[in-house]
Design goal:
Strand content: over 45%
Number of helices: 1
Mean pLDDT: 92
Radius of gyration: 17 Å
Structural class: mainly beta
Order of helices and strands: EEEEEEHEEE
Helix content: under 10%
Largest sheet: 7 strands, antiparallel
Number of strands: 9
Distance between the termini: 10 Å
C-alpha cells in the first residue's frame, strides 16, 4: 500500500553503476495499459484498452553525460530510489528515448524518458 509521504531525495542508478542526479519532477507511467471510453450511438459506453510501455520521464543535471552513447546503449536496468519514502522502482530491460535539450542557464537536461518492458515496485 502507498503512504502519505512523497518527495524528498531521489536517485537514479543504471545497471552499469552510473548514477544520474535527477532534477525537477519525476513522472512515472507504470501501468502496462491505458483505457479509453468510447460512446456508442445508443448512449452505451465501451472500453478500449491499449497496451503501452512502462516509462519514466526524467530531467537531470548536465554533468557531462555522453547523450549519444546513452541513446545508443544496449538495454539496461534502471532503479529509482526514494530515500524519504523507502520506495524503490525497477525498470527492467529499459532504454532511453527522446531528444535531449540542455538549458545552459540552469544546467537542466530535459526531453528524456526511460521506456521498459517490465516494472516492479518495492514499498520498502
Amino acid at each position: 500500500m502507498g503512504t502519505k509521504d512523497f518527495g524528498g531525495h531521489m536517485t537514479l542508478r543504471l545497471s552499469s553503476g552510473e548514477a544520474i542526479s535527477l532534477r525537477g519532477t519525476l513522472n512515472m507511467n507504470s501501468a502496462g495499459q491505458s483505457n479509453e471510453a468510447v460512446v456508442n450511438q445508443d448512449g452505451s459506453v465501451d472500453r478500449v484498452a491499449t497496451v503501452q510501455a512502462r516509462r519514466a520521464e526524467i530531467s537531470f543535471a548536465d554533468r557531462g553525460i555522453d547523450y549519444d552513447a546513452l541513446l545508443k546503449a544496449d538495454r539496461f536496468n534502471a532503479t529509482f530510489i526514494e530515500q524519504f519514502t523507502g520506495v524503490t522502482h525497477y525498470f527492467t530491460d529499459a532504454f532511453v528515448v527522446g531528444d535531449p535539450q540542455v538549458n545552459r542557464m540552469n544546467g537542466e537536461v530535459s526531453s528524456f524518458s526511460i521506456y521498459s518492458e517490465k516494472y516492479t515496485r518495492d514499498n520498502g
